[in-house]
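Appendix B. One record, verbatim.
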Amino acid sequence: MFFSGDSSARKRVDLGGRSSKESDRQVLLEQARLDRKRRLELRQQTSAAIKIQKCFRGRKDVKMTRSKVREQFKVTFGAHGEKANWQCFGPDSEFLPQLLFFTSNNSTDVTILVEACRLLLQYVQQNGNIVSLFSGLDYSSQNHSLVDFRVKKLAYACLHAIFHNRNQWKDNLLVSSTYPYLPVVVLFETVTCLTAPALPWNCTVIDYLSQRKVFLLLRCIILTGLHDVKTPLLRGSVSSLEHVLISLASHVGQEPCYCSSVDQRWSFSLQILSIPFLWHHLPFFKEVFWANHLGRHYMHQMADFLPNHSSIVLNDVSQEYPGHACLLGNLTEAAGVVLSDLNSSSHTAIDFLTVSTFLLGLLPCMDESPRQSFSPFQIKAMLPVLVWKTKLEHGSFIEVLHHLLQAMYEGILVDIPFATFFLSKLKEKSNFLHDLPSLDPELYRHLLFLKHYKGDVSELELYFVVVKNEYGEQTEEELIPGGKDMRVTNDNVISFIHLVANYRLNYQIRIQSLHFLRGFQQLIQKEWIEMFNEHEIQLLISGSLDSMDVDDLRSNTHYAGGYHHDHDVIVMFWEVLKSFSLEYQKKFLKFVTGCSRGPLLGFKYLEPKFCIQRAAPFDVAEEDLDRLPTSATCMNLLKLPPYQTTEQMRTKLVYAISADAGFDLS
């Protein structure tokens, strides 16, 4: 058959697919693919079933083995370990291996563990040498590995038992160590004994506990023991939990140290220091943390770690207490003490600024963040030492102040009087000679004396230089080029006076002022501040000194510990406060809030609300009434004993608020 014409115009007909062989091949390939997929799923199901069977069989075997071990333990050492003695802790005894095989979710096992720890503490109290208890007479290279293994397992077993039973023991988790009959106290004190710094296994045990996320366990234990995050428990002595924290947290900077690196997410800094109001719940640990220079170490550790790991998310206790805000609040409270230490260096201040700037950047915006993270007392105590430690050489210090201004913006007044010339810089105004009294009134008087001097000014031997005296070092700086060779005369004395004033008011602090202004304007727009003069800006920062509305404070007060609005002690308290002069009312307000001025819009906007808590048991004794009232400024909390008479109330209050004390009356 022949075709003619243009081949491109011919109609093409699709005759319908491939050959039968190719179709059969595609069907076979698809079937093979489906069979392979089914076999793979079957293998996965079979593997998972085998693993589940092995798991259940393993659990069953472990359960049976534990039952056998319990029976052997019961025969050898008694049902509750009553047959055990000090020799049972030795390396040749089966007491500890069997004991450490028990679990913390079995009440009988926990009871045996507590009795064993009680026996251990008795030995330490009578003999003192805990090393010989575990190793016998020879703690040598031959058996120290076995001893170290048993000790670290025992320490972890004690902490895990407390963690597992924390809800059952929640009322006793933070009790004083003077209650040795409580299981919690026995277990905590055992851990303290096993982690004492002088022990040869100290580094091994603490490293093991750190690898097992011990600070996460302790965080959960502490939070369970807090009945109210804002209200600290009243204790007369250190708690056993604080003993453990002191022992573990103090294991830093020691040489030699063989501890391996730990994931910082589970470190002391991020787990313990992020607990809300930590220092008020653990006051004795606070003293050790500050006195032993631990603050410096942990600030440096966080400064090295946090800025490079911005993805780290701290656990929030609640929406009201974000983890970053709590960590920042605790560090801010510690910074005033740590940086005031004469032995601390500018590096510590820079570490704090690095950490605080990072944490402030992670906080929610102002409209969403909780209003309780900073105390005006903390800010006031912190700023001078930061200025001194950094010597105003680091712009990062000045720029971080805009974050502190954020706290002020949220309604927290700061009782810091800024000089008028400095407030002018917020309005980007230049300062002149008559602004000098707010900075250096003595220099201002001397310059006026020089201006009106009737004699020959050149006889005073003055030159166009200024002498700087910073931290004991005196240097000269020329006011104009060649100023050190140019004598001040009657003809140029006015220029000299204005050059000196300009140097002190504008030039000398130009870098610091620029950084401060830059940080300030990141938070508060320039247009917002232009409507105020310098005096009004100071009012925005620190509030008004005119008066204090006691009735307004009373209507916005909470009560705790058994007090209420109509309680006799409370009624008497408000009568006494109303009878105070304005000076003493302001002293009282500073005593309980850290600032002598109330919020601009009234005490309704004081955060947190002012609270009065009973500071004595219900069966009050005479010695309870001799106590002074105390305060916790970061919580705006007054701890008030139930005084019996108005005169006693007045005397105790006046003494407390007039003492000008800090944390020694907190």
